[in-house]
Amino acid sequence: MEEWYGVYTYQGRVYAIDLSANNLSGTLPEAVSTMDALKYLNLSSNNITGSIPECYGELQSLAQLSLYNNRMSGEIPASLCNTPGWNYTWGYAVVGNRYNRFNLYGCGITAPTLSLTLTDGQTLSVDSDYYARNRYTILFQWSDEYTDFIPTLKTLYDRYRGFGLDIVSWTPSDSKVAEYAVEWPVAQVSEDCPLSEYNDNYYPVGLYPTVTMFDSAGRLVFSDTVESRGNIVSVVDALFADIVNADLYTSTDFSADGTVHTLQRASAGEGIDIVIMGDGFSDRMIADGRYAERMTLAADALFSQAPMSHFRELFNVYYVDVVSANECFAFNATTALRSQFGEGTLITGDDKRCFDYAQKATDTPLDDLLVVVVLNSDRYAGTTYMYYPHSVADGAGGAIAYVPIGQSEEMFTALVCHEAVGHGFAKLDDEYTLEGMGAMPLEHKDFRKSREEYGWLKNTDVYHNPRFVKWSHLLQLPRYVNSGLGAFEGAASYATGIYRPTEQSIMNMNVGGFNPPSREAIYRRIHNLAYGEKWNYDLEAFLNYDLTNILSDMSQITVLSSENQLFMPTHSPIMRSCRTLYR
């Protein structure tokens, strides 16, 4: 027996048979089931027909059954589904054959437990608790050579993520992740960084791409090993049809729409107006207090960081009830401010409607108005629209900051600080770089110059010479020697050709608070709005404030951080003319 081709024995017993790609035909022999020590049976890539014999369920030692790429059909025997190795080897048994796919889904195949190292360095455990949190979870294996199916999955993800669809994927290379703006968790796997021992040995079949889907109990409900990959669209649509219709609550009472609430009145100065509103909140969410709670959290987030935290008494803060027809941003939902999630972390909305609602609370000119729109979604995203002012002043110009409620209060606070305070109020620039972005092009530098005339973008500069950089007046002061202030290359999405003041900050990675040039810009904007023309900027007054309140006690700077993807770069601020509001 030891001399038989493709037959391997140990201590006189057959433990492996490998007759793959041998042009075999006929049906599977039942006699194989008597080999109780058999661990590996590989008959793949032949012309075998018929079905798997029921007696193969007696192969209790079988770890891998490779029957892929034959012409087999029929039912998968229940006895085989009950063997210890079936949950690991089913993919090798079914791909490229013609089994009854519904029979496969009833064969007790359960979802794998995976430990993933994501492309951002975080670790994700995909286990029974993870599956239970979602209605359905798609596992997607892909590579740079096979990316055509990504847009299809993105459509499904955007359509149903709010209803409980999740996607987890892995790839040998992450070079296409940014190109396709993939938002679901992605792991990069290799020989040095395997997905897990489970996947490395058994799951799924080593094909690219491979798509499988499991329900909340971890049961297999779709596999492209037995049906067309494209079928997943109709399958998911059908699975979510009743859920979407059931969960798509529709408001009937719009009587509260437009009601203005005052969260605080300024106790000094002329009063700086900020208006907060929500999108995707229904009548019942306003009636039961959830809307008011979220608006209050947004207000507290605005004043969570210095210098805003030290000058809260100079602000009037209002929120306006905005009743949306639906409570989500699904493809078939309707919201009052028409917010939508775009590619990556982009958010779009009807800015004119937002400003119209804001005018119910205040007659503050657009140049001086900050509007914060809170989206009723747990997605990670954020975009601020900065409108060109009619006059030149520090940070002048209206702004709308779109921020989702996120998955935690910490995440929400960080997004509000970055988008609403940084971009919207002080017109600060982003201080992060994006993968694949090289040198800032000359035309972008020219564009920046025209915006800097408004007093915008005070925290980045195309110059790094200590004598000419925008924050040179701070850089040369002894009191900032230990503040980490300098000129660090990389900002405004670009890796080179532009500089930021510190290694980290809220405008970079949401850590370390606002850096000194950003604090100065916020300080100036606050006082310009609070005291008008009677106030003139005094550098020494700012330095005294900063030394007393910040530099003397660095604990005043809150470090915003999280173990869970608190910050990935949000969309760059979009700068617009006010004329776009009235097209």
Please, could you describe this protein's structure?
The chain has 583 residues and is α/β, with parallel strands linked by helices. The chain contains 15 helices and 26 strands. The strands form eight sheets. It has a seven-stranded mixed β-sheet, sandwiched between helices. It has a five-stranded mixed β-sheet with strand order 13-12-11-14-15, covered by helices on one side. A four-stranded mixed β-sheet has the order 1-2-4-6. Strand 24 and strand 25 form a beta hairpin. Helix 9 packs across helix 11.
Strand order of the largest sheet: 16-18-17-21-23-22-26
The Cα radius of gyration reads: 30 Å
Largest sheet properties = 7 strands, mixed
Indicate the overall shape.
elongated
Give the DSSP E fraction (strand runs of 2 or more residues): 15-25%
**What ranges have pLDDT less than 50 throughout 5 or more consecutive residues?**
197-202, 561-566
Mean pLDDT figure: 88
Gap from first CA to last CA: 84 Å
Q: Kindly state the number of beta strands.
A: 26
- Secondary-structure-based class equals alpha/beta
Helical residue percent band: 10-25%
The helix tally amounts to 15
